[in-house]
């Protein structure tokens, strides 16, 4: 019997250095809202999404590629950018064929860390494309790192829940010697019947922050499975559907 | 109404730097088995426990204080030391009145980090002294950091479960804006009816490692609430009952 590939979960970018990911498919997870919005934009026909780590770089690249610049700081569109972080800002009639240059702090930082550590492949995961992520991992049969973007390196509930959702769907096919993965799955099993209610009842910090900005609708969407079920892959600085 | 003190959980020493603990009571948590053994030795009458981070230092200090040297590497008593990490090695008839010099890697490292970061007070927490820890935190009315020792910085299930046990018992009296704390409590609520079975069914890495060494009895003991219900406090390099 051949050995199963391994699966690990890193609950924060500050823990990623503990793992050798040079032979791994890394799933970048930033549920509220970067990876949910990226999958949605691509699902709705965006040509590509370019993730960048600062507003100034977003403006610069936006000009260079004639793209749509997007990003928020403290719940408002950042000065100099045109759009925000909500998946609802990117319907097909608006985004189709366009390049979205998106600045996100936690997710982009994590993606670059994974690149620096020589990840075999980097893909984007969210509840919105859960099935595509799981199917890809099962097809690849390679080691997997579920990498949560967290919030300023602090572990968060929604990214952990998504890691747990993936674990629950693919675990038979992987060797999982990783408490974080088992914890994530256990939490997902508790919360899966109503993830929104689970975030709320656990007083999740992002739930608080975003509802403070009136974004309940965004949260509900970002917790909905397979509503934008495509697979974004990071290739040469861009996220595209492979 | 006066503001409640804050409570945070750091799931790994690699996350502790994210928090300001200069006004906090830090609870050092290393369930399998350092903090369980420390509470047990003190409960059984040890004069003090000196935690050290290396075998050589353990030998050196052991000579200096005429203490009992203890510590394991890979499940065996480390060369040059006299005893191991099991709480069952320290019954009253053996340990009463003596100084135990204990080398633990994860727990001692964490304790020194907390010291370096200027923690207000450092105490030792385990299921074996859960009530004493909770009562102390409720009496102090200060900010709290539940600091998990983890395993080589990787998050582990048993330390997280203990953090969750504390959260579940004190949460009404603290302001908890920390997803790790809520996650820990949620996991504890799932597992609390049979923590041993929960570790086993979640394939916890430490459960695996220790049962491989024939230590099921140790694990069961380390998951038993209040069997050594005293409060070890770190003062001037030593853990004592205050």
Please, could you describe this protein's structure?
2 copies of one chain form a homodimer. The first copy, chain A, is α/β, with parallel strands linked by helices and 242 residues long. Helices cover 40% and strands 19% of the residues of chain A. The first copy, chain A, contains 10 helices and 11 strands. The first copy, chain A, has a 4-stranded parallel β-sheet, sandwiched between helices. A 3-stranded parallel β-sheet of chain A has the order 3-7-4, sandwiched between helices. Chain A has a two-stranded antiparallel sheet with strand order 5-6. In chain A, α5 packs across α6. The two termini of chain A are 31 Å apart. The mean pLDDT of chain A is 95. At the A-B interface, α7 and α9 of A face α7 and α9 of B.
Strand and helix layout:
2 copies of one chain form a homodimer.
Chain A: E1 7-10, E2 24-29, H1 34-43, E3 48-52, H2 55-65, E4 68-70, E5 72-73, E6 76-77, H3 92-95, E7 99-103, H4 105-116, E8 121-125, H5 130-140, E9 143-148, H6 157-170, H7 179-191, H8 195-201, H9 205-212, H10 216-222, E10 232-235, E11 238-241
Parallel strand pairs in A: 1-9, 2-8, 2-9, 3-7, 4-7
Antiparallel strand pairs in A: 5-6, 10-11
Helix pairs in contact in A: 5-6, 6-7
Describe this protein with a few key phrases.
homodimer, 242 residues, alpha/beta, four-stranded parallel beta sheet, three-stranded parallel beta sheet, 10 helices, 11 strands, 40% helix, globular
